[in-house]
Amino acid sequence: MSATKAAAARPDISILGVVTKDLQHLPGAPDRAAPGGVPIYAGLALCALGLRVEVRTRLASRDAALLAGLRAAGADIEIRPARATTQFENLYSGGDLGTRRQRVQAQAGPFAIVDLRGLRASAVHLGPLLPDDLPLAVLRALRSRATLISLDVQGYARRLVDGEVRSADWPDKRAGLACIDILKADAEEAEALTGQRDPGRAARALAALGPREVLVTLGAAGSLLLAQGRLHRVPAYRPRAVVDPTGCGDSYCAGYLFRRLQGAAPDAAARFGAALATAKIEQAGPFTGSADAVAAILKLRETTSASGGKRKPRRGGRSTPEAGGRA
Which of 36, 137, 254, 325 is the most exposed place for a label (fewest CB within 10 A)? Predict the structure, then answer.
């Protein structure tokens, strides 16, 4: 389908979130500037999987070129002008790039209820990166318009201290999570929001506040899914190489939502999301593969598990993390 026809058709899903200017610091690699944010990493993955995607974002008009990839992929984009574009620095360290520090250099500011006007999809994925990106009033207004609301909670579980991102509780979590159907958090965010160090208990505490499906990603340990009162342990899938971990959590969400919108059961959707996160970590930038490529990772995992075989990592002979969905 051409980009023009895709834009004219009703979207399968809408994404609300800021597009960012990211500067990536990876050990042993040159610093890399790239567009980032949930609309980029989840939006491009969903486009690659074949969904019609609508994006509502905030950024400075001078930075509209950050959206070139989304436009080329056929996404329908509406920009809410801002004085500045949100800018992150991501500093990775550790042998498996498992430690990340983040600094914020600029902020685009919050969405408003008026920004929901004309939203066409019945399924909406929310991607706040900072606590003020999506105020509670916007969540409540959206609840009356959308039949399915998904939230990557990362922005609500943060605060800025001298420009550096720190974990924090969400003061409006009880009212906010009452508006949400599907919730994704990583283990650190889940603990910040619930006070529970055990991810399973954290998932149940989050579900008690409203979401009917809760995903807690655990990095190399895989992820947990709580759906219909049942806790599922979802395996991680070992990547061939760890190239770029930024956006793995967004990719996990994209894979999960893609399969849920197709009618797949939650546990099958979570496995697909984990496999998509693995495919993403093997490449720089957003996932641009296909559903078949993700299915191949799942099939390989099932084959090696059945045979008891183990695949050796290729990154300099060191063990590599399995992609459980780092944001």
Answer: 137
